[in-house]
Amino acid sequence: AQSVSQHNHHVILSEAASLELGCNYSYGGTVNLFWYVQYPGQHLQLLLKYFSGDPLVKGIKGFEAEFIKSKFSFNLRKPSVQWSDTAEYFCAVSTSGGSYIPTFGRGTSLIVHP
Amino acid sequence: KAGVTQTPRYLIKTRGQQVTLSCSPISGHRSVSWYQQTPGQGLQFLFEYFSETQRNKGNFPGRFSGRQFSNSRSEMNVSTLELGDSALYLCASSIPTGSYEQYFGPGTRLTVT
After folding, report:
1. Hey, is A36 helix, strand or coil?
2. Is some CB atom of chain B closer than 8 A to the CB atom of A51?
3. Domain boundaries of chain A, sorted by first residue
4. pLDDT value of position A102
5. Closest alpha carbon within chain B to A6
6. Which residues pair with B91 in a beta bridge?
7. What confidence category does residue B97 fall into, taking pLDDT thresholds of 50, 70 and 90?
8. How far is it, in rounded angstroms, from Cα B31 to Cα B94?
9. Counts for chain B of helices (H) and strands (E), in that order
10. Which helix (DSSP H) or strand (DSSP E) does residue A88 occupy?
């Protein structure tokens, strides 16, 4: 079974700082990769996704993520965070041809100070 | 399109009781998955239903069960509640083709005392 590791459990940044959240997975086959975000008091929503093609994917609100197959990684980045980015971020991986149920990481809590 | 709805939004139960949670998926979505979210554990997959059949199951005890109706609405039941069952229970619906992108509901916050 695949597993997903999010190395940063809590991140605190000031506005305008750059953000990179790490995500690594353990599965050698073809994967679909997701980042979800959960803003305070809101439901989980999709930030961006990778299925195939260009390994650099862009999502909503200026977020992007890069799939590096050789490193089994799918790190989330944003060049300049805002206070409104304060949220919990989850990386998820599903396998093509498998049960396709995504496995989620434990999440990273991001706090952005104004 | 209306999003995924879950009822009730909040529940307080005592140990030993049972509880039923409900989820209505996005119209046209036939797959419904349930997750348990707890601080520090992230989202743990409970089970998935498609066309009224449980198609995938996570690693939870038999006290956790579910079902899906012909209109794709799903219910989740937890019997003999334990304190450790306190969590946010999330429902997600999807069209299970291609990338299997999921759409989540707001969750039901269950507190067991």
Report:
1. strand
2. yes
3. 3-113
4. 87
5. B42
6. B34
7. low
8. 5
9. 0, 11
10. strand A87-95
Do the Cβ atoms of B42 and A105 come within 8 Å?
Answer: yes
Q: Does the distance separating the beta carbons of A43 and B99 come in below 8 Å? A: no
B28 touches chain A (CB under 8 A): no
Mean pLDDT, 10 residues at a time, chain A of 114 residues? 88 97 90 94 93 93 95 96 97 79 92 95
Note the pLDDT tens digit of each residue in B69-91.
999 999 999 999 999 999 999 99
- B101, B103, B108: best to mutate for the A interface, most A CBs within 10 A: B101
Among A33, A100, A108, A109, the residue to mutate for chain B (most B Cβ within 10 A): A100
Distance from CA of A86 to the nearest CA of B (A): 16
End-to-end Cα distance, chain B: 37
A3-113: CATH, from 1.20.1640.10, 2.40.50.100, 3.60.20.10, 2.60.40.10: 2.60.40.10
Phi and psi of A84, rounded to 5°?
A: -70, -5
Helix (H) or strand (E) holding B66: strand B64-68
What is the 8-class DSSP label of residue B31?
E
Nearest beta carbon to residue A43 from set B48, B98, B104: B104
Distance CA A108, CA A48 (A): 16
Contacts of B47 in chain A (CB under 8 A): none
Q: How far apart are alpha carbons A3 and A70 in whole angstroms?
A: 16
3-state helix, strand, coil in chain B (%, to 5): 5, 55, 45
